[in-house]
Design a protein that fits this description.
185 residues; alpha/beta; four-stranded mixed beta sheet
Length: 185
């Protein structure tokens, strides 16, 4: 009687006549190693970036660890001393400026973002009667005068403080919105 055995496929990789694995299997293995290595490197870089803050620049948070645009922030110092920063961002809300009293170094840029009702702005005190008045129109805004145009919701106004001193400011549409920036050398 003749026995017929069916040959089954082996689950181990086949070697070529010279004893080496075929090129396709070798390439798949190398590709897998590269993918895992790239993922590990990306994770390590992300972890390192999470633990560092750019020197001299930060978004200041006044509450929950997030800013109006969802970016990461640092907590506001209790005394308002922001002299270690070269850029400061704050919100204009319907009930006030998020950082109403700060101290910064000469040359620092402050950016205000209106997150409240359209029409708020930032304008240096000018000895008015305390009533609402018009903000300058955009064509009247000058980089050397602390007086920004009325902002729509989400719009920003930036001013670089080039001189030392105390700068009291308010919103033209609501004098109850007041703040102070003290600039030191």
């Amino acid at each position: 009687m003749i026995s017929h055995k069916k040959k089954t496929a082996s689950k181990t990789p086949h070697k070529t006549a010279g004893g080496a694995f075929p090129a396709r299997e070798l390439l798949v293995g190398i590709a897998a190693i590269l993918v895992v290595s790239a993922a590990a490197m990306a994770y390590a870089i992300g972890q390192a970036q999470d633990q560092t803050e750019p020197a001299g620049e930060a978004i200041i948070d006044v509450g929950n660890g997030q800013t109006h645009d969802g970016s990461q922030s640092v907590k506001k110092p209790a005394d308002g001393d922001l002299t270690q920063l070269s850029q400061v961002s704050m919100d204009i809300k319907d009930d006030g400026y998020s950082l109403p009293d700060i101290t910064i170094k000469q040359g620092t840029t402050v950016t205000w973002t209106n997150v409240g009702t359209p029409g708020h702005n930032v304008m240096q005190e000018h000895g008015g009667d305390g009533h609402a008045h018009d903000a300058p129109v955009l064509s009247e805004v000058r980089p050397y005068i602390l007086a920004g145009a009325a902002l729509g919701k989400g719009e920003t106004y930036s001013f670089t403080f080039e001189e030392t001193g105390t700068f009291r400011y308010h919103s033209a549409d609501n004098h109850a919105l007041q703040g102070v920036v003290t600039v030191v050398e």
